[in-house]
């Protein structure tokens, strides 16, 4: 994901007099997946490669930050906004022990690329 807009502030207020809230890129991504794309939490968590619990925490933090920015008229900066995020998911085959990586957003692989077995699982690295 790349982000073009990385700084938001209330119009007509000088930046130096604004308090700034920093939104991490994964927090923005969590909001994008759920609030913009309408994904369920479990699907969104899978796409981001985190547990549902972790995802819920990220989303909760993100929403609280954005709500505060709007309600209290603060500036919002997105951290790491110019960085193209290329996260990998790791899968491990239970048959041949082959381990391979796939970027997010490409869906779950159908079978192990080495032995074609369907008995593989996601390695959780977080
Ligand atoms: Zn295999």
SSE succession: EEHHHEEEE
Largest sheet: 3 strands, mixed
Tally of domains: 2
Shape: elongated
Q: What Rg do the Cα atoms give?
A: 18 Å
Q: How far apart, in Å, are the first and last alpha carbons?
A: 20 Å
Family: Belongs to the UPF0251 family.
Protein name: UPF0251 protein Poly41_09080
Pfam family, one: DUF134
InterPro entries: UPF0251, WH-like_DNA-bd_sf
Question: Can you describe what's shown?
Answer:
The protein is α+β, with helices and mostly antiparallel strands and 126 residues long. It has two domains: 73 residues, Arc Repressor Mutant, subunit A (Orthogonal Bundle), CATH 1.10.10.10; 36 residues. Helices cover 33% and strands 21% of the residues. The protein contains three helices and six strands, in the order E-E-H-H-H-E-E-E-E. The strands form two sheets. Strands 1-3-2 form a three-stranded mixed sheet. A three-stranded antiparallel sheet has the order 5-4-6, with no helix packed on it. Strand 4 and strand 5 form a beta hairpin. It is elongated, with a radius of gyration of 18 Å. Bound molecules: zinc ion. The site of zinc ion has 8 residues, from loops. Belongs to the UPF0251 family. It comes from Novipirellula artificiosorum. This is UPF0251 protein Poly41_09080.
């Amino acid at each position: 994901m790349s982000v073009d807009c990385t700084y938001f502030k209330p119009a007509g207020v000088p930046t130096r007099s604004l308090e700034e809230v920093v939104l991490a890129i994964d927090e923005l991504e969590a909001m994008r997946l759920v609030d913009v794309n309408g994904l369920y939490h479990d699907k969104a968590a899978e796409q981001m490669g985190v547990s549902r619990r972790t995802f819920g925490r990220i989303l909760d933090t993100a929403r609280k930050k954005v709500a505060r920015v709007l309600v209290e008229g603060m500036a919002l900066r997105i951290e790491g906004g110019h960085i193209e995020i290329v996260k990998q998911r790791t899968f491990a085959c239970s048959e041949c022990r082959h381990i391979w990586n796939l970027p997010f957003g490409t869906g779950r692989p159908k079978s192990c690329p080495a032995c074609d077995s369907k008995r593989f699982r996601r390695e959780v690295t977080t």
